[in-house]
Amino acid sequence: xxxxxxxxxxxxxxxxxxxxxxxxxxxxxxxxxxxxxxxxxxxxxxxxxxxxxxxxxxxxxxxxxxxxxxxxxxxxxxxxxxxxxxxxxxxxxxxxxxxxxxxxxxxxxxxxxxxxxxxxxxxxxxxxxxxxxxxxxxxxxxxxxxxxxxxxxxxxxxxxxxxxxxxxxxxxxxxxxxxxxxxxxxxxxxxxxxxxxxxxxxxxxxxxxxxxxxxxxxxxxxxxxxxxxxxxxxxxxxxxxxxxxxxxxxxxxxxxxxxxxxxxxxxxxxxxxxxxxxxxxxxxxxxxxxxxxxxxxxxxxxxxxxxxxxxxxxxxxxxxxxxxxxxxxxxxxxxxxxxxxxxxxxxxxxxxxxxxxxxxxxxxxxxxxxxxxxxxxxxxxxxxxxxx
Length: 388
Description:
The chain folds into two domains: 27-50 and 69-239 and 279-302, no CATH class; 312-383, Carboxypeptidase-like, regulatory domain (Immunoglobulin-like, Sandwich), CATH 2.60.40. The strands form six sheets. It has a six-stranded mixed β-sheet, sandwiched between helices. A four-stranded mixed β-sheet has the order 1-10-13-4. It has a four-stranded antiparallel β-sheet with strand order 17-16-19-20. The protein has helices at 3-6, 27-31, 89-94, 99-121, 133-139, 150-154, 159-165, 179-185; strands at residues 33-34, 42-50, 70-77, 79-88, 143-144, 172-175, 206-207, 210-213, 227-230, 236-248, 252-254, 261-264, 270-282, 299-302, 312-319, 330-333, 336-339, 345-350, 353-360, 367-373, 378-383. The longest helix is centred in the N-terminal third of the chain and has 23 residues, at 99-121. With 388 residues, the chain is an alpha+beta fold. The chain contains eight helices and 21 strands.
């Protein structure tokens, strides 16, 4: 017999190094601070809401001032990420490599992509989670236009300055891969590149000493931002259920939208991998001496040349019983907080959704409401009743 006659009996060699790039991890979970795992669906995190204030005592018999300190509750709500991947058993049996072993890292990568996209950009944000970092920064006025330039990065009113004005220091920067070319193009007054990596070595990007990350997991929304910087360690997350993988062989899988049966595993001789993860996150934003009302946000972002960020304007006017505007009232739409101006008004820019609203002002009762934000501008007039 020659080789041609034996060809059908010779098994081809299959190299198990499948042609794919390395799975990408979550940038948000790398930069944010992990808290102990959650023991329930919701976890309460007390944060400082009112700072004590000392005062000078006049004379030998002066009366010492009395000051209070108070806390507010920030909640981490666990949202569930899950996926089911079905396979025919015959395909698994005939494959010359570990199919399941190749799929599981990709599932975990997709979990990281979903976390980054939801926490940073609000893409497919679960209803249980608070507002994303871009929305928080936008409502704090920490958005910078004009593209990635030296002034936008390091100038007065630029990316770094916006975060410092909130009383924090930048400890991380997340940017689109395309922004690397913009960074390399920045030059000083003498025409020398600001970023001049060693052409023979690996380029290391940082901004004012803070490391820069360029997510390759598909989470970065280039229509919302070119770059976002902030005190990422101020954000916290907690795991309710770590990634759990189970192989199913008896389930019926239906279309979530229509309810139609897609696969009957037992009847069709199939297996399926089911992976589940549950986690929550929050930006506690406690009161500080530089931000006693907790209305600043330690994040800022540079807008892209053409923004596709869709936000709805929401105008709140807070009045007393005499219909006079109340300045200095704190209006909270979800996790976004603002103080009313001299006329009692506060303007928000919010993604569409349903939010809980809380309005407070010392000397007045607390007002709670539910707000549904659609595509059209909303104008809300609220009366606060004096607590006296």
